Structures are given as C-alpha cells and as structure tokens.
C-alpha cells in the first residue's frame, strides 16, 4: 500500500455538495474577488438556512402543521442551498 493510500482523506458529501454549488455559482458569475464572493455566498447560505429553520418551526395554519409533521416523518427536508446571486 502506498503512502498516499494510507493518508486518504474522506470528503463528506455535504462538504462536497456545498463546494460544488459554490464553484458553479462562482464560475457562472465570474466576480473579481473570490474571497469577497465566498463571504457573500456563504453568508447568504447561512441566512437562508436560518430563515428556513425559523419558518419551518412555525406553521402558519393547522394544515401546514400536519403536513410538516408528516413530511418530517418521511424524512423530507427543505432544500436550503444557496443559488447564484
């Protein structure tokens, strides 16, 4: 076994997904500064996730409350990915 195989790093799917999404958004928009763009991108992603968590925790009607409970039991989650700005 080579030394490269001994020290392989497993990249979690969630990290792979968010970095791929960031990369695609960056390549589509082609901003001047990658760091500034990354800060804006990940800040928006974080805000979107917080908003999604807040709105999903507070149903606005009894029907939504039942639906949310049923969806949770099925394992469905909201898509909280940040799309190109």
Q: What can be said about this structure in brief?
A:
The chain is mainly α and about 80 residues long.
Structure characterization notes:
With 85 residues, this protein is an all-alpha fold. About 7% of the residues have low confidence. It is built from four helices and no strands. The longest helix has 24 residues. It is 68% helix and 0% strand. It has a domain of 25 residues.
Structural class: mainly alpha
| Unreliable segments of 5+ consecutive residues | 73-78
Number of helices: 4
Shape estimate:
flat
Task: Determine the N-to-C terminus distance.
Answer: 45 Å
The radius of gyration over CA amounts to 18 Å
DSSP strand tally = 0
Biggest sheet statistics: none
Q: What share of the residues lie within helices?
A: 55-70%
Instruction: Give the amount of beta strand, in percent.
Output: under 5%
Q: How would you spell out the order of helices and strands?
A: HHHH
Q: How confident overall, as mean pLDDT?
A: 77
Biased composition (Polar residues): 53-63
Region (Disordered): 53-85
Protein name: RIIa domain-containing protein
């Amino acid at each position: 076994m080579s030394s490269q195989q001994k020290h392989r790093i497993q990249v979690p799917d969630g990290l792979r997904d968010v970095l791929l999404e960031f990369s695609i958004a960056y390549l589509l928009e082609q901003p001047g500064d990658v760091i500034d763009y990354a800060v804006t991108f990940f800040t928006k992603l974080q805000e979107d996730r917080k908003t999604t968590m807040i709105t999903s925790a507070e149903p606005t009607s009894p029907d939504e409350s039942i639906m949310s409970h049923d969806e949770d039991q099925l394992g469905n989650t909201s898509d909280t990915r940040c799309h190109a700005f």
